[in-house]
Amino acid sequence: MVPERWRDTRLDLGRRGALVLAGVGAVAVIAAAAAAHRDDRSVSAVEPLPSPTTAAVRSPEVSPRADSPVPAAGARSSDPQAASVAANGVAELVVSVIGVVEHPGLLHLPPGSRVADAVAAAVARDGADLAGLNLAQRLADGDQIVVGFPAPASEPRLGSTVVAGAPHPPAAPGASSTPGVSGTAGAQVNLNTATAQELDGLTGVGPATAAAILEWRTQHGRFTSIDQLTDVTGIGPAKLERLRDQVTL
């Protein structure tokens, strides 16, 4: 309530008073606005923090190196020895070398070996007849190599030859089982000049017995009697009787 005595009274603040009053009002408005803004911030909702997520850990993938050798499908081995084993079905060759050599007997050679390899392993003696052998011939499992010595044609000699280890096919009726031998009845083989192939063609004589006969000739020179066949390893009285009509001197 305004006292009655002030009701008709007009205040004249003047220019200076008006400025002061306006300044006080402005300060009040600013203060009120600041208080309202502070209250709004204090009551604003707090946003929830994002929940932590679990990242899947993947194991590193190992990619093949560019320089790593990758065998091509269907690739074949370049090893000639492995290819020979696969073709022949044997891991090694077993051959026999006898005659004029330092180390006669059985030799174990890799597949693909040749006659020259076997002769070199057995060490041919001085004067051995290597001209009678085909040194480039490829060997087969079970072959036998006979190393002889050269001699004048008029004298009996042990000829060099390679005896195949494979079984011989049965001869046709009336035909000879070896080249150079007549198939007629009564054809005989000379014990002192026959080759390993000719001896191998006799009934009851195989590659081993033929080689033994040649070895006996190497040591003793020549047969003077058919009965001397019993001195050869592997020939007994029964086999001698079977051979008596097939051989001559």
From TrEMBL:
The keyword Oxidoreductase does not apply. GO terms for molecular function: DNA binding. Residues 173-186 have a biased composition (Low complexity). It comes from the Bacteria. Residues 197-216, 227-246 form the Helix-hairpin-helix DNA-binding motif class domain. GO terms for biological process: DNA repair; protein secretion by the type II secretion system. PANTHER family: ENDONUCLEASE/EXONUCLEASE/PHOSPHATASE FAMILY DOMAIN-CONTAINING PROTEIN 1, ENDONUCLEASE_EXONUCLEASE_PHOSPHATASE FAMILY DOMAIN-CONTAINING PROTEIN 1. This is ComEA family DNA-binding protein. It comes from Nocardia vermiculata. The lineage of its organism: Bacteria, Bacillati, Actinomycetota, Actinomycetes, Mycobacteriales.
